[in-house]
Amino acid sequence: MSISASMVKELREKTSAGMMDCKKALEESKGDFEAAVEWLRVKGLSAAAKKADRVAAEGLVNAATDGKVAVVVEINSETDFVSRNDGFKAFVNTITQHALKSTSTAPILEQEISAGKTVGDSLKEAIATIGENLVIRRTEKYTVTGEGLVHTYIHGEGKIGVMVEVGASSAAAATSAEAKTLASDVCLHIAAMNPMALSQDQMDATVVAKEKEILKQKNLESGKKAEMVDKIVEGQIRKFLAENCLLDQPFVKNPDLTIGAYAKELSKKAGGDLTIKRFTRFELGAGIEKKVVDFAAEVAAQTKTH
């Protein structure tokens, strides 16, 4: 049968695949629309597999809130150019909204995003359409239980995303202007200061132990007396914890107050206790080893083969 332009257009709108790919899919499936969709999905699987070994360290961090629920998501691409692409931004927003509204406890790639289609299927289709390896790297979701609120903040056009949950001792305190101010200010502070833990008792014990060992060696190598080193290190560890635990950090907008003291100050004005319960901070590409290309060496290697 002949493949009409309207059929190609409809398939392209449904799948976001290229025009020629849509025409080829309809030809291969003899005009069967659903079979053509499946053909493109299979083609997308093939295209995605070829790109899977490419390092994806660019992309976007995104966030969304809906009442007492919030999410922050990091989706990576290979290049910064693609991260500015409208199609990529639309994909990131779709996944963010899915993460916000979904009640599934399955791994995100296995969750159904629409009838008969998983998030993983959508990812592979996006890879085929955009032409780069894409990775849904991580998501975090908060749901407030009891009185309180959640707040999110995106910094640097998607380079850093922060999510904070603030608990309150009453409904009036939870809905107060002070609670919203605290959540907003703390998000900004976390984006800027990158705390490692909420409080000292929540700091990873292995991190503290490693820091103690490093400080001990530094002090011994600098000539400090062995019998004095442990006492010196304890003081330095106290400083380390104060610098890296959110509640002990000097508030970036007013260094005369710690974040903990600032929360207490706003609690008095709100007429009820406001407590920072937890936070998440995603920095784009953090921990991903980016491939550094030495173009001079690459050209030299190629010339040797000729």
TrEMBL record:
One of its GO terms (molecular function) is translation elongation factor activity. It holds the Pfam family EF_TS. Residues 70-285 form the Translation elongation factor EFTs/EF1B dimerisation domain. InterPro entries: EF-Ts_dimer_sf, Transl_elong_EFTs/EF1B, Transl_elong_EFTs/EF1B_dimer, Transl_elong_Ts_CS, UBA-like_sf. Keywords: Cytoplasm, Elongation factor, Protein biosynthesis. GO terms for cellular component: cytoplasm. It is found in: Cytoplasm. Coiled coil: none annotated. The keyword Protein biosynthesis applies. SUPFAM superfamilies: Elongation factor Ts (EF-Ts), dimerisation domain, UBA-like. The keyword Cytoplasm applies. Residues 79-82 are annotated as: Involved in Mg(2+) ion dislocation from EF-Tu. Belongs to the EF-Ts family. Associates with the EF-Tu.GDP complex and induces the exchange of GDP to GTP. It remains bound to the aminoacyl-tRNA.EF-Tu.GTP complex up to the GTP hydrolysis stage on the ribosome. PANTHER family: ELONGATION FACTOR TS (PTHR11741), ELONGATION FACTOR TS, MITOCHONDRIAL (PTHR11741:SF0). This is Elongation factor Ts. It comes from Pseudobdellovibrio exovorus JSS. The gene is tsf.
